[in-house]
Amino acid sequence: MAFKAKIKVTLRPSILDVQGKAAQHALENLGYSSVESIRIGKYMEVTIDEASQAEAERVCSEICQKLLSNPIMEDFSFELEPVN
Amino acid sequence: MADVTVGIVVFPGSNCDHDTEYAVASFPGAKPVMLWHNDHDLKGCDAVILPGGFSYGDYLRCGSIARFSPLMREVIDFAGKGRPVLGICNGFQVLVECGLLEGALIRNAGRKFVSRQTTISVANNTTIFTDRYEKGEVLRVPVAHGEGNYIASPETIESLESNGQVAFRYTDAGGNATEEANFNGSMNNIAGIVNRQGNVLGLMPHPERASEALLGSEDGRRLFESLFAHLGGA
Known about the structure:
heterodimer; A: about 80 residues; alpha+beta; Mth169, Chain: A; 3-stranded antiparallel β-sheet; 2 helices; B: about 230 residues; Rossmann fold; 9-stranded mixed β-sheet; about 25% strand; globular; EC 6.3.5.3 (chain A); ligase (chain A); ATP-binding (chain A)
């Protein structure tokens, strides 16, 4: 059974996000003075074929820890839903 | 004098592999051997170098995909046996991604890719990679990276410092670890660290690009000399 995982990987709050800072600065130049901060992360869609939702969740969590995020500087979260 | 065989790992996207090969070959008694990332064989080498570049196009995170190359399993095993592994620039990024070294390397604090000559100081001259330098000696070694900002948890930084694992720091020409000299924002001006056992070194500056006078500096040579001497060579 296939499941689609929608994974978000974000820099930990303590980590400086220079990319976000640059984008914020550009918005400031465009006149958007109300934009206080931008943090840029990654969004990934992963299709996982497993027998159950619980098993797919286990695999998804494992791949996030092993490869898709670096726990020293990033956090991850995901939503999982069955694919018809 | 016994010959020292030095394996240089070539990942898709490595671009300092031949510079490193050239630098290694300039030492009498040292023989470079190129190792393809997809192989399983370290070809009997005495030391392994992970060169600079953009392995796997820096996809996902710098060094994160290279870490899972078949050959990296051999390299991790090799390091685990106490054998020497040196990671330069992207090689340093691979070493932190695979956990052979602590911490992480994030985007330079100043946002820019920095490619220029820098000055670094020898923070620990008792490692197998640095014992031909004086402690506190200032070296001119170039850098070329966009993601060399070294970070780690406060506990990790403290243990790196108290165990003498910081090998090199960004300093001014007088050897002072100033904020100005720390162009990429690294914690404690860290430019290079060794693991707890001292057999794995990772650094962002390029010693292979400071290996002959024509390149503007020879200050990187003694890093290789230190290592090769330990391996019974030159």
